[in-house]
Amino acid sequence: xxxxxxxxxxxxxxxxxxxxxxxxxxxxxxNLPENIxxxxxxxxxxxxxxxxxxxxxxWEYKWTCIYNIDIDETKRFSRKRKKAREKTAVNFVDxxxxxxxxPTIKTFRLKFLYKYSPxxxxxxxxxxLMRNVENLEINYDHEGVVLPRCLFNxxxxxxxKLRLPCTLRVPAGNWFxxxxxxxxxxxxxxxxxxSNTPMFDFPVLERFDLDNCKWLEVNFVEIKAPALSKFxxxxxxxxxxxxxxxxxxxxxxxLKFHLYGHFVENFDLSASSVFSVIVxxxxxxxxxxxxxxxxxxARLLLKRCFSLKHLKLAGSVVEGIVISKQGPPLxxxxxxxxxxxxxxxxxGAVLEMLHAMPILETIVFDMCLWDDDxxxxxxxxxxxxxxxxxxxxxxxFNGRKAQVHFADFWLTNAVRLKKMLGLYRKRSDESQTExxxxxxxxxxxxxxxxxxxxxxxxxxDFERFFG
Length: 467
Hints:
The chain is an alpha/beta fold. It is 26% helix and 24% strand.
């Protein structure tokens, strides 16, 4: 007969015990070394590790040896009423931290929906820091939390991810000496140093993400990070009032710098080598002041990126760079081989940019909402098109007349073109100009080194569905 047991004050029937045994009938799992059992339980969510205490008396406290504490309130307490859910969550975290016996916590991850006492959350973080936590991740969407000062001096931390609306009071001196990954979202960074131009030294930092963060009482900051390879900045909110903060990255060998949103800060990458830059700022044509501002900021960003090999820009940023005459002239990107445009852009602005890219080999266009342009007004074609451009790729090409004209411009002028990819032929209502383009395309690539996509078989259905 099955027996009843209680887990978190809920009665349930104890399942029939089915143990994994060897040839001699001995329980294999229970006889494993303690460090192996600890490792297995640490791979489970904390709630599942705790549930193993109901297996038998021998397993009642084995969960206390876990070194990964992963608590996701959205998964564990979704079926309870709000007040009961909050009380259960607090008791659960307290119990985990109180009874855990290991001296080092490798991962401490909290994701909460509801508002709890800020002092309680601070106490949890402090406890994890005292246990020499290596990976600390807090996802909490309520204000009022004050982070403990010992956070900055924690030498065990290698990963820190805070999605938390709080103020980070940065003290003087070196901090996060062993941090490799730093992710901050909705954090206000306040300078607590005497100097108005603080320098942050991250000797081993490899990735730095700023997601809708603000710099308070800081006009300039230098980040020294010789191991930094990825720096991502996201700014969705509107342009703030007041002075922008200038951020200088020194000594880094950046594989990728990615800005999504708009230039709230001004970035100086001149003291670092950069392989790839992505600037994804998109504005409507009516937002001319924003386009000009971001264009000027983009000029300042790119002015000394001599080692750049891959550049990806929104079309509005390209147009802003061209119309922003106040900034420094664009340098010649002597090593740049690939350019991607994330949305539509005037042909004149594209060609203006290409004059600064003498050895460009690949260009990629996102053809969504691309308008017809005045190609007959083009007076000079950049040398990279006639001498080096070997691959043109289109994304979102739908075979409309304006897009065919655009593709024809590149087919006509890029005499060394070897590949043209992403085309789609709309066979209905084709004009003589479009027919001539497809004939020219086949003649130019007799070896078949082009691709006409045919996954949309009925363009009329496509237009009805997508408007």
